[in-house]
Amino acid sequence: MNPNPANPQLAEADLDRALATASDSILPSSGFADSVMTAVYREASAPAPLAFPWKRAIPGIGAVVVAAALLIAAVVSFFRSALTRSAPAVFDLQRIANPLTHHATDALWLSVSLVLSLACLLFCRRLVSPR
Known about the structure:
The protein is an all-alpha fold and 131 residues long. The chain has a domain at 54-128. The chain has helices at 12-19, 32-45, 54-84, 93-101, 104-128. The longest helix has 31 residues, at 54-84. The termini are far apart.
């Protein structure tokens, strides 16, 4: 018994008959399968995307890391020396450059580091420049 006459109950046979039509299969439009397969073949035959040139970027990344470490060390050293003295911290180039040039070995190592930095810069520039 159907308690609601507005919604009649469908028998399973009625449901099967409504769903099973003569055009049961869906067919794509003409040329659709060919155009899809052409696009698939074109994508498959395309060259792989270019990889990031890590070999060329490593010297630059290393230089940035070293420069950042040196900058942090210089700032920490500057503030540490400023806090240990009772005099106010003033930017004095001679006071900052004095520890670097105090000993001959320090000046030598400073020169070596500058030469190595220049060599790294020239090497990176040579790698990046067009041939």
